[in-house]
């Protein structure tokens, strides 16, 4: 069944797009919510009249996504995760984790638009993450995954440092 979208619908299209959908989807979801209208001469004429308005909104979205792209690519983001001594993470960095980091930096990006090569990151290091912004615009973000120092590891490191200091003082006392 052909419909013309009256509003942006996730995973389907934008205002003014003509789409083929299942009749039940149109009848039970799109039509009652005024998200789409049946494709016929009247609705085509109606949307032809709104064509300039629709194009202006799309141009505005393109401009907004371009500015977001510039801001994202200018920044580098860091994620701290618990990791072992070899750099392997206890867990993984997923698109949800990246989305939370971006929200802390005042970027509201849906986790479904974040693409991580291999789906997850399981080791510390620098990675690039691709973010789908609008139509064919993607932002490439640098993400650094750092090992989070746990309380136990910090205590062990402090103990080793104290032992080394005490060895050095003992050795200097023996030489003197």
Account of the protein in words:
- Helix content is 43%, strand content 28%.
- Strands 4-9-8-6 form a four-stranded mixed sheet.
- It is elongated, with a radius of gyration of 27 Å.
- The chain folds into two domains: 48 residues, Ribosomal Protein L9, domain 1 (3-Layer(aba) Sandwich), CATH 3.40.5; 86 residues, Ribosomal protein L9, C-terminal domain (Ribosomal Protein L9, domain 2, Roll).
- It is α+β, with helices and mostly antiparallel strands.
What's this entry about, in short?
This protein has helices spanning 23-30, 41-49, 51-74, 95-104, 151-175; strands at 2-5, 18-20, 36-38, 76-82, 88-93, 114-115, 121-123, 125-134, 137-148. It has 176 residues and is an alpha+beta fold. It has 5 helices and 9 strands.
What order do the helices and strands come in, and which of them pair?
Blueprint: E1 2-5, E2 18-20, H1 23-30, E3 36-38, H2 41-49, H3 51-74, E4 76-82, E5 88-93, H4 95-104, E6 114-115, E7 121-123, E8 125-134, E9 137-148, H5 151-175
Parallel strand pairs: 4-9
Antiparallel strand pairs: 1-2, 1-3, 5-7, 6-8, 8-9
* Whole-number total of structural domains: 2
Biggest beta-sheet profile: 4 strands, mixed
First-last Cα distance: 94 Å
With helices defined by DSSP (H or I, 4 residues minimum), what is the helix count? Answer: 5
Number of strands: 9
Determine the mean pLDDT.
83
Residue share in helix: 40-55%
CATH topology of the largest domain: Ribosomal Protein L9, domain 2
Classification by helices and strands: alpha+beta
* CATH class categorisation of the largest domain: Alpha Beta
The low-confidence runs, each spanning 5 or more residues with pLDDT under 50, are: none
Question: In one word, what is the shape?
Answer: elongated
CA-atom Rg in angstroms: 27 Å
Proper CATH architecture of the largest domain: Roll
Q: Name the strands of the widest sheet in spatial order.
A: 4-9-8-6
Please report which band the strand proportion falls in: under 5%, 5-15%, 15-25%, 25-35%, 35-45% or over 45%: 25-35%
CATH fourth-tier homologous superfamily of the largest domain: Ribosomal protein L9, C-terminal domain
- What order do the SSEs take from the amino end to the carboxyl end, as H and E? EEHEHHEEHEEEEH
